[in-house]
Amino acid sequence: MTRRFALRVCVAAIAMAVAGCGSSRSTIPPGTADADKFLFERGQAELKERNWLKAREFFRQIVENYPQSPFRPDAKLAVGDTYIGEGTTEALLLGVNEFREFLTYFPTNPRADYAQFRLAFAYSKQMVAPDRDQSATRDTIKELQVFIDRYPNSPLVQEARKLMREAKDRLSEASFRVGRTYYRMKWYPGAIGRFREVLKDDPEFTNRDSVYYLLAESLRLSDNPASKAEALAYYERLLKEFEQSEYLENARKRVAELKAP
Fold it and tell me: In terms of Cα–Cα distance, which of 86, 125, 118 is closest to 101?
């Protein structure tokens, strides 16, 4: 069973359990006019107070019982927001499911961009340290790219690009650490291949000064004399692109050494 399929099974099971545990009592006072509006306003008040479960009960009543309500799309989004606010692994999976369903049911809704962004955001809340499985990071990048491609004029684009940078940095850092391990083991061909891969896949990697320096060192220390010229180029790129880096002083020394007669 693949991880993605297992997660879908988990989401379906949790969703069924949640539906079965829903409150059976009515939260609408008798004789209330515009009951859907009443529920939505109560849900918003609870959401503002971070009462995730109570807010969800109000919003879910709209989604399930008022199919023609103009508040239904926003209530569906709000259900997803309550899961993100809750923040547990199970809740985040359910949040992803809510936003996916919104995009299926309301693909042309004016807030579809928000749904796609929050879908990616829910994945980003599941990202783990670079030395652990990066499946959630890849899912974050995938969904953010869909958002950027589909909604280039959304007011959320800047925030999405910032989150994209964070996710890509996490993924690149994971790959960089593998290369650094090879470097420390003095297996320079493996280190060179991994560092080149990082620069190819993510040329804007925030910590690429580390990649430049260790790639240059790996090339300089390799058995191939022709690699010295390529090493020099990476030392010089480091000096050109970074005004601050822990590697600047050593890079200057290496440049002087390699350029010496």
Answer: 118
Task: Let me know: does 100 contact 139? Beta carbons within 8 Å.
Answer: no
How far is Cα 81 from Cα 95, in angstroms, rounded to an integer?
7
pTM score over 0.90: no
Roughly how many angstroms between the first and final C-alpha of the chain, as a whole number?
A: 61
DSSP 242: -
Sequence-distant (6+) residues with CB within 8 A of 116 are 99, 103, 143, 146, 147, 150, 151
**pLDDT tens, N- to C-terminus, the chain (261 residues):** 445 545 554 554 455 444 444 443 446 766 676 899 999 999 999 999 999 999 999 999 999 999 999 999 999 999 999 999 999 999 999 999 999 999 999 999 999 999 999 999 999 999 999 999 999 999 999 999 999 999 999 999 999 999 999 999 999 999 999 999 999 999 999 999 999 999 999 999 999 999 999 999 999 999 888 899 999 999 999 999 999 999 999 999 999 999 997
